[in-house]
Amino acid sequence: MGLRIKDNTEHSQYEVVVENHLSKIEYIIAQNKIYLTHTEVPAELGGKGVGKSLVNEVLQDIEKRGLTLVPLCPFVAVYIKKNPEWKRLLMKGVSVA
């Protein structure tokens, strides 16, 4: 599912609209690190892979931007645990085990 995410810098969140519902991942950027703090996918989109696709697209953007990732959101941490190739973005000393 290739989503068109938008980095809404005004609200510090990545966003995507699917079936007229807004899904988002909130973040904080400080000192070349991005802290993903909260993922929200409306119940109407549950089980459709929107959350996973959103995380994947966000991680691709983080990599392009050369930021170091600190996944504070449990959903993002679980995604990285299941897709360990993304561990390359993690800040040293951060574990998703």
3D structure, described in words:
By secondary structure, the protein is an alpha+beta fold. It has a single domain, classed as 3-Layer(aba) Sandwich (Aminopeptidase), CATH 3.40.630. 26% of the residues lie in helices and 32% in strands. Strand 1 (6-8) and strand 2 (13-18) form a beta hairpin. The chain starts with 5 loop residues before the first strand and ends in a 15-residue tail after the last helix.
CATH superfamily: Gcn5-related N-acetyltransferase (GNAT)
Q: What is the C-alpha radius of gyration, as a whole number of Å?
A: 13 Å
Proportion of residues in extended strands: 25-35%
Order of helices and strands: EEEEHEH
Give me the CATH fold name.
Aminopeptidase
How would you sum up the major sheet? 5 strands, mixed
Number of domains: 1
- What is the count of helical runs? 2
Instruction: Please name the CATH architecture.
Output: 3-Layer(aba) Sandwich
The shape, in one word, is globular
Sheet with the most strands: spatial strand order: 1-2-3-4-5
Low-confidence region ranges: none
Average pLDDT over all residues: 95
Cα-to-Cα separation, first versus last residue? 26 Å
What top-tier CATH class fits best? Alpha Beta
Global structural class: alpha+beta
- Secondary structure tally: strands: 5
What are the key terms here?
97 residues, alpha+beta, Aminopeptidase, 2 helices, 5 strands, 32% strand, globular
